[in-house]
Amino acid sequence: MEGTYVPPRKDAFDIGTDTLYGAIGGLELHCPHFDLLPGLRLRSTFCRVIAPYLMAFAPPPRPGLPHPNPWVALGEGGLTVLTELELTADAEAIGFDRLNTVWFVVALLRLRLGQPLQVPVIADRPFSVVKSAPESANIIPVELGAPLVRTTPHRGATQSDLQWIQSHLRAAAALMQDPIFNRALQTFDRAVAVPYPGAGIVIAWASIESLLRPGQQRITERLCRALATLLHPPGSTRDRAFTEIAACYEARGGAAHAGHMPDTKQFTKAFDLARAALMATIEQGRLPCRDELLRRWSQKL
Question: 189-216 burial, b for 16+ CB within 10 Å, e for fewer?
């Protein structure tokens, strides 16, 4: 009556203990749901995060009401969400707080798929039921910044991809307790947020350098030999891989030291190599030993 707007009361919600739902933009399941761990489930859903700024040209009639028409959208944008990650109150703990558990699962999905997945919001209930009482739902923005850089062709998640996450989630979480792997994975995961290719290739290689720690002498030779040995069995395939890896590292040097723009092939190659090195480490369940890799290279093991 007095024109004082009182927002509706939200339902009680504790992000540290209650069940939460993370919206995953860019991921489509080919099944209704997929269980990763007890209490941790991917489920098909639908919601749309609308991104453009809107302009209105008249004030609202009173607080709490929308601006009257017309509205003008400034550009296009938005994110369609087809998958949510459910983390129940009694989910199996994997060494992270609850919000970072959502981040870590999606980081592994980004790693495995090479796709620019994002978690724009989390909510206290499934997104399919938010629409029945939106005023009481707790919806919290998480990743609403600039879109991530695409480094591989678009592809969907296969059953094999989901099973890989399921099989290696605990081992990957345990590796995150090691500061070397933690730094390597987080460096890689943030590289796709850099829109400038020259910086992106440097950051992707920084992830590999963090993982393999080539030392201060003969860096290119040692790093490329160790990486080729980590990723390939002995023989001609490994030899060809060394040549390709060295060329990619040279492109990284040109970007870092001379400001050269890497071509698309070398840019995507750097991300493919970083992804492969991190996934190989997760599959082995331990950090790669540089000296062991170099010994295997020299002895063709």
Answer: bebbbbeebbebbbbbbbbbbbbbbbee
Q: Which two tokens stand for residue 69?
A: 């028409």
Sheet with 139-141: list strands edge to edge. Answer: 33-37, 40-50, 78-87, 20-25, 121-123, 139-141
Residues of the chain with pLDDT under 70: 1-3, 5
Half-sphere exposure at residue 135, Cβ-oriented, CA atoms within 13 angstroms:
5
User: Residue 221 and residue 99: Cα distance in Å, rounded?
Assistant: 40
Q: How many CA atoms lie within 13 A of 143 on its CB side?
A: 23
In the block, which residue shows the tokens 């400001």?
A: 259
Torsions phi, psi of 23, nearest 5? -80, 130
Supply the DSSP string of 199-260, one letter for each residue: HHHHHHHHHHHHHH---SSSHHHHHHHHHHHHHS-SSHHHHHHHHHHHHHHHHHHHHHHH-P
The structure tokens 């600039």 sit at 146
Between the CA atoms of 293, 297, 299 and 301, what dihedral angle is there, to the nearest 10 degrees?
70
**Secondary structure, 3-state, 87-154:** ECCCCCCCCCCHHHHHHHHHHHHHHHHCCCCECCEEECCCHHHHCCCCCCCCEEECCCCCCCCCCCCC
**Alpha carbon separation from 299 to 149, 229, 293, 296 (Å, rounded):** 39, 11, 10, 5
Q: For residue 109, give the amino acid letter.
A: L
CA-to-CA dists, residue 182 to 95, 107, 173, 178, angstroms: 13, 12, 9, 6
Residue 89: alpha-carbon gap to chain centroid: 23
Question: What is the structure's pLDDT at 1?
Answer: 54
Quick: pLDDT tens for 161-213: 999 999 999 999 999 999 999 999 999 999 988 888 999 999 999 999 999 99
